[in-house]
Amino acid sequence: MTRGSVSQNDCRQLERSPLIGAGTASIEDLIAQFGHLSEPDSGPGVTRLAHTPLERRAHELFADRMRALGLTVWADAAGNTIAEVAGTELGLPAIGTGSHLDSVPHGGRYDGIAGVVAAMEIARLKTEKKIEHRHPLRFIAFANEEGARFGQACIGSRIVAGLTTRTDLDRLTDANGVTVAEAMSTVGIHPALVSEAQWVPDHWAGFLELHIEQGSVLTSLDIPIGVVDLISGSTRLQLTLHGRAAHTGGTPMHLRADALAAAAAAEIVLQAEALATDTRHRGTRITVGKLDVEPGSITTIPGKCTLAVDIRDVDSDRQRESAAELIAAAQAIGSDRGVTVDVELLADASPAILSAWVRDEIIGAASGLGLSYRVMPSGASHDSQMISHICPVGMVFVPSQNYGVSHAPDEYTTAPDLAAGIEVLASALRALDQTLNPSNGPKRVEGDNDD
Ligand code: GLV
Ligand code: MN
Ligand code: MN
């Protein structure tokens, strides 16, 4: 039994509405094809990390399908793949839609993929039905969105937005010390050229992304469409605790500088949780997702402990204040325990406020199709967050089943829910195409709240 899915009422309404005709069979087929591209013998779920041969294969699958439809396809210098259909009016800026094709380790089949499949389905239907549009339409598969490998999320879209540059690619490393630049080179992408991938704002009229919710708000309310107003920012820290490795039998309890359990790291983890749940920080999310203990022997007191901390918030000031408070608390705990604490900022992305008028176009599209919707923030990071630095952006969420689980093998969105989201996306793209007119500016309704 799935919750929050398109209801029978919604289905009846969808049958009466002007539809592009998104098909559940083609959606399921594409989700399955991408889902098969996972590291062999990597265990449950999909493992297709950024800048690996498997991520490139996913991009090739996208490129081959789009080329077969007759679209012009190219890969940019960041490893993103872009497919374009020309518009009927010369010289208009492009409207884009898409998402990412990489996964976290043991992730699901829908995070990112849903938005790329939505783009592919819209490209297929527009081509087959010869549906014209005034602006060029660009369908985009971003590379390296998950921060799982290099700490920093959305690197492909940050590069096109000019937020990540050549020097960052030498600074950011994965768990094996491989830099982003080195990883790019191993799959044939030339890091020295990344600046060429930067988008020119005048060339872009707008961008829409469909994504799974990755939470359970929509299913709990039985609502099929989320319209995103804010995207959370994320500050990522690495705290390294230096204690004193010593014999677990020979060292009395009061003479230890244990970097882990009975000492500093455990207290910092609990402090992070306490900080994020007090009333002042309601809405802040702090997670210690990785804890490495050295030397990692049952008979040696931990001498070094490394914690990876992710601080997310829709309030930019509070996000950075929470990071500062946690660092201060960690240093106080360390000094009480005879453990030194080094702090490294791994990544920092601000929250994004999405365009109010693009949100209204998505709401109009959902309402026009008779689908209920909820305006909601995104807890996760998205490529749209970075693209909002280039052009007006909107996001459509579709329900995540299994209590909203994501970044895990059980991640699941039903094909009818995806089809409904694709209809909303197609209808909103059509509305942008018809409404936006660069010579006069977008047509606006009196009282619109610009941002
Ligand atoms: C991206 O998937 C994120 O971690 O928010
Ligand atoms: Mn994603
Ligand atoms: Mn993700």
* Uncertain ranges: 440-451
Largest sheet: 9 strands, mixed
Report the order of strands and helices.
HHHEEEHEHHHEHEEEHEEEHEEHEHEH
Strand percentage lies at 15-25%
Question: How would you describe what is shown here?
Answer:
The protein has 451 residues and is of the alpha/beta class. 34% of the residues lie in helices and 21% in strands. The protein is built from 13 helices and 15 strands. The strands form three sheets. Strands 1, 2, 3, 4, 5, 6, 13, 14 and 15 form a nine-stranded mixed sheet that branches. Strands 9-11-7-12 form a four-stranded antiparallel sheet, with helices on one face. Helix 4 (113-128) links the parallel strand 3 and strand 4. The protein is globular and about 80 Å long. Residues 440-451 have low confidence and may be disordered. It binds glyoxylic acid and manganese (II) ion (2 copies). The site of one manganese (II) ion has 5 residues, from loops.
Feature tags:
451 residues; four-stranded antiparallel beta sheet; 13 helices; binds glyoxylic acid; binds manganese (II) ion
Question: What's this model, at a glance?
Answer:
It contains 13 helices and 15 strands.
List the helices and strands and how they pair.
Layout: H1 8-16, H2 24-35, H3 53-68, E1 72-75, E2 81-85, E3 94-100, H4 113-128, E4 137-142, H5 155-160, H6 166-171, H7 180-186, E5 204-212, H8 217-221, E6 225-231, E7 233-242, E8 246-247, H9 264-277, E9 285-294, E10 300-301, E11 304-313, H10 316-337, E12 340-349, E13 352-353, H11 356-368, E14 373-378, H12 383-387, E15 393-398, H13 415-435
Bound molecules: glyoxylic acid (GLV) and manganese (II) ion (2 copies).
One manganese (II) ion binds at residues 104, 111, 146, 407.
